[in-house]
Structures are given as C-alpha cells and as structure tokens.
Amino acid sequence: MWKKFIPFALADNIYEIEPWFYKKYGATTLICDLDNTLDAYYTMKPSKEAQELIKKLNDNGIRVIIISNNISNRVKDYAKELGCEFVSSARKPFRYKSRKFIKKNHIDLNKTIYVGDQVFTDVLFANRIKIKCVLCNNLVEKDQFFTKINKFFDKYLRKIIIKKELAKNWRDM
Ligand SMILES: [Mg+2]
After folding, report:
1. Ligand 1 centre from 75 Cα, in Å?
2. How far is ligand 1, taken at its centre, from the CA of residue 16, in Å?
3. How far away, in angstroms, is 106 Cα from ligand 1 center?
C-alpha cells in the first residue's frame, strides 16, 4: 500500500527538469499539476518562466497537459494562455475524470511522465493510473487551506522517502 506513495523520481521544481529526462524514458507527454508546481495558486496568468518551459518542451516534441484539482475557470484561463490541454476539478487522487480525458485523447500512459508537488494527491494519483511521477518541492510556501491539512502528512512521508532513499533525484537517474 505504501508503495503507492513513492515517486519515481524527485526534483526541486518542474523548471529544472531538462527535456533529456523525459526523452530518456520515452515520454512524449508530460502531465503536470498546476498549483505550486507550475505557479502559485493565486497566480492567474502563467509566468514568463512557465511560458518558456512549455515552449521548450513542445519544441522537444513533448505534449503538455495540466491536470488540476482547482476549479475550472482558473485552470482554463491559465492553460489556454499556455496553449495546453487541461483537466480541471480533477479530484486527484481519484482517477475518474482524468481517465476519461486520457482515453478520449488517446494518451499513451507508457509514454507519459507526471510532475506534481504533493504526495497524497499527485504521487498517489500517478501511481494509481500507472504513470511515472516526479515529486517536486513546493514552489511557494503559501497554500490553500485544504492543502495545508495534507501538508502535515506530506512532510512526514517526504522525510521517509528521502531518508530511506526510496527515490532518487532526476539528475541521478
Ligand atoms: Mg499542487
């Protein structure tokens, strides 16, 4: 059961991960979380850094899809500005809504990598739908209230993962 909380790799943030990493595992699709992974939850428009990242990945033949638990308008506006496909109100770690999207859009999960910032939503979700997951540190300290409750357990699990070396940094893979 605990295996479901172990990420495939660790990263400080999504911005440091180079395209070679995705290519090494044959990934042509990157699914990523939005809040605290690409930008802070209160950021309505994608940062310049986010725009450059998506462009760099697209130029390397990697399709980027945002799957977020946040509500539709915020995710929609943000993703559209980036030119990314998206799923909002995804209810990760539950699979139902994302699975529907994945099926409909013919996404090959064997050629997909997931990047997110939370053990209980992102890592668990990715492992449940069987995609390799990179767990990042939180981009900013500030979080929404519900996320704060999760954070307590998140910190605890993260400590174990690092201490017991259950996952390596993406650069060392
Ligand atoms: Mg997040």
Report:
1. 12
2. 17
3. 25
Q: Domain span at residue 79?
A: 2-172
Global pTM? Answer: 0.95
The tally of domains found in the chain comes to 1
Q: Are strands 112-116 and 132-136 parallel, antiparallel or unpaired?
A: parallel
62 C-alpha vs ligand 1 centroid, how far in Å? 21
What CA–CA distance (Å, rounded) separates 9 from 154? 16
The answer to whether 134 and 113 have CB atoms below 8 angstroms apart is yes
Helices (H), the chain: 19-24, 48-59, 72-82, 96-104, 124-128, 145-163
Q: Which residue has the tokens 């999504």?
A: 14
Tell me, in angstroms, the distance from the centre of ligand 1 to residue 70's CA: 9
Span 100-144, pLDDT tens digits? 999 999 999 999 999 999 999 999 999 999 999 999 998 887 666
Q: Are 161 and 4 in contact (CB under 8 A)?
A: no
15 CA distance to ligand 1 centroid (A)? Answer: 14
Q: What is the CATH number of the domain that holds 30?
A: 3.40.50.1000
Tell me the CA–centroid distance for residue 66 and ligand 1, in Å: 11
